[in-house]
Design a protein that fits this description.
With 336 residues, the chain is α/β, with parallel strands linked by helices. The chain has 2 domains: 4-127 and 278-300, Rossmann fold (3-Layer(aba) Sandwich), CATH 3.40.50; 130-270 and 307-335, Dihydrodipicolinate Reductase, domain 2, CATH 3.30.360. The protein has 10 helices and 15 strands. It has helices at 13-24, 39-46, 58-63, 79-88, 103-116, 131-142, 168-185, 272-275, 277-293, 301-320; strands spanning 4-9, 29-35, 53-55, 69-72, 92-96, 121-124, 148-156, 189-195, 211-217, 222-228, 236-243, 246-249, 258-260, 263-265, 324-325. The strands form 3 sheets. A 7-stranded mixed beta sheet has the order 12-11-7-10-9-8-15. It has a 6-stranded parallel beta sheet with strand order 3-2-1-4-5-6, sandwiched between helices. The protein has a two-stranded antiparallel ribbon with strand order 13-14. Helix 5 runs antiparallel to helix 10 (301-320) and helix 6 (131-142) packs across helix 7. It starts with a strand and ends in an 11-residue tail after the last strand. Bound molecules: (2R,3S,4s,5R,6S)-2,3,4,5,6-pentahydroxycyclohexanone (ISE).
């Protein structure tokens, strides 16, 4: 099958990791171009891989005839612009979360994709490819435990890069739970809210930490997500779906158990990119296979849009103090 030629915009840690993954692990793909806001970062990365060309701007990379599919791992604020540019050029595009900074930009993206007449875009919600979450989804969908009633989730981080802010706990961190919960439950949200709780003295900045987010779905399920963005003991992701006849729990990643000093213990990872490393590998392999077959099949512009609208409702509720409605436009046929 024909190899998919990929251009990566954004040569920071996650961009470099995806270039390594696409070039060394994923079958049927090769990175042919890179670009970054800092051109030296792109030249440095290109120099490590024979045949990879560094472009001065993302726009030039998108226009390059050899680039068939674009991967966007640049700063969050730049995502929507590059996605629209790639869709306008009729190219496949994979965009890391969040798809955009505003619901209005997500709507523009959905319009552009519909104008192209076929699915071109996939959003990087890699947790859907994690074996643990995928197995949970299988059990819930089988109905063997009855209807799902609620989700208890937590997302704990050891630290954040400088410049972190309260809203990022939603748009950069809890956004994963916003996507995975509706995917597990196969439902859309009705309301969203953030609750004030006692603050952690371990926070190394002036943002709110922890935060507890509460969601309800159209069928009345309730989801609570504890988000610790700083100072936690490890990068710990927990998820329990409570069903009528039992619970379904996200497994910890495989780790060797030590028995010593009258205790049984195993290490918990501290780095988020390591926690989901296998999910990223599977996500990109599936993406490339789908492109070879004609179109992406993973998380869509609609999923990017819903998470963006839900994040906005949570942020709004911090100011109003009450649950806010998650108001969505009608789902376009392309995403049904
Ligand atoms: C990062 O972008 C992620 O996606 C992680 O899941 C999250 O825990 C981390 O705080 C973010 O910076």
């Amino acid at each position: 099958m024909k190899e998919v030629k990929i251009g990566v915009i954004g040569c920071g840690a996650i961009g470099r990791e995806h270039v390594r993954r696409l070039n060394n692990l994923v079958a049927g793909a090769s990175v042919v171009a890179v670009a970054d806001y800092f051109p030296e970062a792109a030249s440095k990365l290109a120099a490590q891989y024979p045949g990879v060309k560094a472009y001065k701007t993302g726009e030039e990379l998108i226009a390059a005839p050899e680039v068939e599919a674009v991967v966007i791992t640049s700063s969050d604020e730049s995502h929507a612009g590059y996605v629209l540019e790639a869709l306008g050029a009729g190219k496949f595009v994979f965009c890391e979360k969040p798809l955009a900074q505003t619901a209005a930009d997500c709507e523009k993206i959905m319009e552009a994709e519909q104008k192209a007449g076929r699915r071109l875009l996939q959003v990087g919600f890699m947790r859907r490819y994690d074996r643990g979450y995928a197995a949970m989804k299988g059990i819930i969908a089988s109905g063997e435990l009855g209807a799902p009633l609620m989700i208890h989730a937590c997302h704990r981080n050891v630290s954040q890069a400088p410049g972190f802010a309260t809203d990022y706990a939603v748009t950069r961190v809890a956004i994963h739970e916003l996507d995975i919960s509706r995917w597990l439950l196969d439902d859309e949200y009705d309301t969203a809210q953030v609750l004030a709780v006692r603050q952690s003295s371990a926070t190394k900045g002036d943002w709110l930490n922890p935060q507890v987010m509460m969601l309800t779905t159209k069928s009345g399920q309730r989801i609570d997500v504890e988000v610790q963005t700083d100072g936690a003991y490890a990068y710990d992701i927990q998820c329990q779906v409570v069903c009528e006849n039992g619970t379904v729990n996200l497994p910890d990643p495989a780790a060797v158990v030590t028995r010593a000093n009258a205790a049984r213990s195993f290490p918990i990872l501290t780095d988020w990119s390591q926690r989901f490393i296998e999910a990223y590998d599977i996500e990109f392999q599936e993406w490339v296979k789908a492109l070879q077959a004609g179109a992406p099949t993973g998380p869509s512009a609609w999923d990017g849009y819903v998470t963006c609208v839900t994040a906005d409702a949570i942020i709004k509720s911090r100011k109003t103090g009450v649950p806010e409605k998650v108001e969505l436009v009608e789902k376009p046929a392309m995403y049904r």
